[in-house]
Amino acid sequence: MKRADDIKQKLAFSLLKHNNLHSEIDYSQKNDADIAFIGQKVGDILSGCRECFDYCAKDMAETFVLQSANQNMVSRYFSGKAKAYFPFFPTQLLNGTLFYELTATAPELYAHLFNLAHEIEEKKIIPGTVIGYDVCKTLNEIVNDKKHDQITVARIRDNAATRISFSGGTEITISPMFPFTDRPDFSADIDAEQMIGSDGVQIKYVREYRLYHNNWEVERFCLHSIQATKFILSDIYQNFFRLSRDYFDPWETIKPEDVKSGEALLRSISPINNRPLRVVLLLDDVESANIKITFEGYIEATDATYISLARLFMFIFEKYFQYFVKLELEKYIMENWKKFDSKNHTPRYFEMVKSFHRRKIIVINEFKRIEFNKILFGIGSKFCCNENILLQQEMDIQSMQSAIAIINSSTENFALYTDASGQVIKCCIL
């Protein structure tokens, strides 16, 4: 297993090179410019992935095959006559081959490699992905035959994809719609679709760089090669070398240390529970309502009007604000992880404000009128919190949509109907 760290570093380095290639292709499409030495750059990425399989083959040979009682095969390996090449094909596992010795020394590993070779041959899909096991076979062929050199003369298609530029400066590239059966056929020869823009949006066709060997766009094939290598080798090293499943994850390897520290802190203080402790409705910064709520969800009010408002905005918080609160809190913790003590689980309090250009009006039971153009949520956060929280009141679909429209639409007038205890019966747009 002495080469596991080499695999980890090689995969991470290949991913960094892929990210650089992505940036160069993005610049090329944006500025209609050629990419220098693209064949060599793609070749480096694919060769790096192929070397990872070579490292694994040597680890398997030296850890398991050398235990074989077949001293002739052991001698051939030490003399260099029997090479440790990763068994991509079933023929590499037949009697008389180096890895056939695993039938005696590591039969479960042999069965795993035998099944893998057939999954590659049958072009099966890696579970949980759209990536075929056969990507590694194509990768092996391209590197062994040095066909990556041909990328330097790969044809450039001026209408291979569509690039959209938005008025705010954001740009995206959209690939055409590929045929799909059990997985997308990325080798299909398809022109980009016509698209219709709107004011301030620019749309143009852009070029693509493709491998002659399989007609795949080079960046996509490089990424699939990195991912296939990670999945296949992670299976082997987790099951037969007892490494953690994510040991080879290149995205984790290249992640900055401060990000890893922030993520570690988040894991140590999770689950984090965020609840509204205070709901304040303001009209031109003057309070229209100010309602307190316990962390457990009990409303500290006796007036049915304020109880119903509390229930309404607790629902709005749960269905709309909760997601943004979670994102903002996690962002704050990630950026300020040095200030946090992972063992200090003291609850925290912060506020989130939503303002409106025009005033909102809620009429309760056709009698009480509440006007506001600003909402302040006072939010309590508890770390490592597994406490049971009161379930929010359920609403019918129309009431749910109307409640959310208070927050995310320009609609101004709403009606709220309640019973005598402040239980919400209906919310609707007027």
Summarize this structure briefly.
This protein is of the alpha+beta class and 430 residues long. 41% of the residues lie in helices and 18% in strands. The protein is elongated.
Strand order of the largest sheet: 5-4-7-6-8-9
Oligomeric status: single chain
Q: Averaging pLDDT over every residue, what do you get?
A: 88
Radius of gyration: 30 Å
What is the distance, rounded to the nearest whole angstrom, between the alpha carbons of the first and last residues?
70 Å
The proportion of residues in beta strands is 15-25%
Instruction: Give helix and strand order, one letter per element, not per position.
Output: HHHHHHEEEHHHEEHEEHEE
Number of domains: 3
Tell me the structural class. alpha+beta
Largest sheet: 6 strands, mixed
The counted number of beta strands is 9
Q: Which spans of ≥5 residues are poorly predicted at pLDDT below 50?
A: none
Number of helices in the DSSP assignment = 11
What overall form do the CA principal axes indicate?
elongated
Considering DSSP H and I runs of 4 or more, what fraction of the residues is helical? 40-55%
